Automatic annotation (TrEMBL):
Taxonomic source organism: Oldenlandia corymbosa var. corymbosa
Protein's name according to its UniProt entry: Dihydroflavonol 4-reductase
Role: Bifunctional enzyme involved in flavonoid metabolism.
Pathway: Pigment biosynthesis; anthocyanin biosynthesis
Similarity annotation: Belongs to the NAD(P)-dependent epimerase/dehydratase family. Dihydroflavonol-4-reductase subfamily.
Length: 228
């Protein structure tokens, strides 16, 4: 219950307060950062169909499975579009996948911990989780693109590489040899996301290998990861 409140109230109330302030300031267009969490959790979506902007996470499913992050993102994004319809404010949403890349802060966040744990925990076997990934610098470019392009409207999934933990480890091991990487991976079902709509608007993204290397180097620079 605490986790539910901590995730939902800031997402929903924060979104409403920002949009209300924008309306009161006569701002015409707002780009709201949501998440692919508002897309991915839909058990009714056909398994052989790539998930795009027409797919919404099922709120009832999220509640029953206690997936409160996806629930909060879904509710907040729906609220944003409802507010836009009621007030005439031009609202666009950007839905990034797992965001990696150089850190601005000196502390690890949830995304960076995924990479750091793969490098340091020394597990023999882990689940080969799907990690649709995007570079934080490419997310910044997408935000600017959506704000500036007059034809931008609705939702935009922002993802670049449909990688897995095993593929991340392959890149990491190539550039940072170690005996602490997982040795075996338990295969899991993969789900695919499409950023075709955003790419048609002119968005481009950098290679995954560049993102991973720049991420690790920033962790070292911040003192989060050993330079050894």
């Amino acid at each position: 219950m605490v986790a539910m409140v901590e995730l939902i109230e800031p997402a929903v109330n924060g979104t409403h307060n920002v949009l209300k302030s924008c309306s009161e300031s006569n701002i015409k267009r707002v780009v709201v950062v949501s998440s692919v969490g508002a897309v991915m959790m839909n058990p009714s979506w056909p398994e052989d169909q790539v998930k795009d902007e027409s797919c919404w996470s099922d709120k009832d499913y999220c509640k029953s499975a206690n997936i409160w992050y996806s629930y909060s993102k879904t509710v907040a994004e729906m609220l944003a579009f409802e507010y836009a319809k009621a007030t005439g404010l031009n609202v666009i949403t950007l839905l990034p996948s797992l965001v990696l890349g150089p850190l601005l802060q000196q502390d690890a966040n949830a995304s960076s911990l995924i990479v750091i744990k793969l490098m340091t925990e020394g597990c023999e076997e882990v689940e080969n989780k799907a990690r649709p990934t995007v570079d934080v610098r490419d997310v910044a470019e997408a935000l600017l693109l959506l704000y500036e392009k007059p034809e931008a409207e609705g939702r935009y999934i922002c993802t670049s590489h449909p990688c897995s933990d095993g593929e991340l480890v392959d890149i990491l091991r190539k550039h940072y040899p170690s005996d602490k990487y997982p040795k075996r991976f338990t295969e899991l079902k993969r789900e695919n996301l499409s950023s075709e709509k955003l790419q048609k608007l002119g968005w481009r993204y950098r290679p995954l290998e560049e993102t991973i290397i720049d991420s690790v180097e920033s962790y070292k620079h911040a003192g989060i990861l050993s330079n050894k």
